[in-house]
Amino acid sequence: MKKIFALILCLCMIFTLAACGEKPENPADDTVSEEAASTAGSDLTWGLKPFEETQKIRLALFTGSIQSYPVYFADQLGVFEALNIEPEILWFTGGPAMLEAGSDWDMCSLGIGGIAIGLSTYDYSFIEATDYEDNMAVFVRPDSEIAKDPTNPEVWKGAECVYPAGTSAQMVLAAYLNTMGLTLNDVVSTNADVSNALTVFSGGTGDVLAVWNAIAFAAEDAGFVRVTDCGKLGNSPICGSFTHPDFLKDNLDLVSTVVAVSRLANEWAYENPEVASEMFYNHCEEEGFLVTEDVASRIVEWFAGPTVEEYLNAFTTEGAFDEGAGRNLLKVEEQILNGYDFFVNEGKYTVEQRNQWLADNRVDASVANRVAELLGK
Fold this sequence. Notes:
Blueprint: H1 2-20, H2 27-39, E1 55-62, H3 69-77, H4 79-82, E2 85-92, H5 95-100, E3 107-110, H6 112-121, E4 125-132, E5 136-140, H7 145-148, H8 153-156, E6 160-163, H9 168-179, E7 188-191, H10 194-202, E8 208-212, H11 213-221, E9 225-229, H12 230-233, E10 238-243, H13 245-250, H14 252-271, H15 273-287, H16 293-302, H17 308-316, E11 318-322, E12 327-330, H18 331-345, H19 351-359, H20 366-374
Parallel strand pairs: 1-2, 1-3, 6-7, 6-8
Antiparallel strand pairs: 3-10, 4-10, 5-8, 5-9, 11-12
Helix pairs in contact: 2-15, 3-14, 6-18, 11-16, 14-15, 14-20, 15-16, 17-20
């Protein structure tokens, strides 16, 4: 009996020693982390002055939408920690839900559809451009008459188009129809949330599909024909960030530092696309957002977020005179109106709403001016 007990004890010791010597289940995670850290440089403050006391800020980001991810990349790289900032990141899958949850965040990042709602319905201040979405695309079935002759307006008339209504997908579809002298009234519109639109279309509903980002690449990989996209049309809708005016008033340096880090992280992503795409892919996996490594790589490759200089230029350069505003617009206001005026023409918002947020100066350039000071621009 003693021999059996001794044998069992010996085996337990062997298994314990073996377990102590096991490698992590996901050794690639450590490799990615080390590689990411090496690309961030030795000075993780990125030329910004760290806060003497720890600053906390709640950031609402859009899961799977690359325009939200530079600030996430910076957090993963350790930049915020180096600046003595503790961000709490909240992830959302839709702009309206994000805006409704305004009491839960201090800054949020979303697309033109959400920007339009934020300016028209809430009192949020628009402070940052984060992307210009080139990969907002229109697809058709490969065996369709449209695919055979996509510039022929006759084959488009009466076509059923599946897309999320009230978004930039509707905008790109309308823009392409306009190139043929058509409008949305010439087609049949079927509303479907972007996360379900491809599923609906793949199931046989509709003749045309309009979606963006990862869903657009998935549609392409499924064999559907890309007819056009915002990049080809030269009409890429802006994405950007809101903050609460009271929070901004009390925390100008904190908000400006976060925006500066976001824009610098955008430049880092351009310089390190492989690391950025791996970080993007890993996060999508964690959040259950369906995306392949190849699609993640293509999303980062198509990313068209503004650099620091481009961001500052958009918020500090005047454009043309606008009758509704009664003044010269900022360049970034013109970029917003490129999408917003489309929604006005579609009846989603009124001219009065348009002119009101312009009159109220809801596009706030104070952050851009402070970012320039912080970075010595």
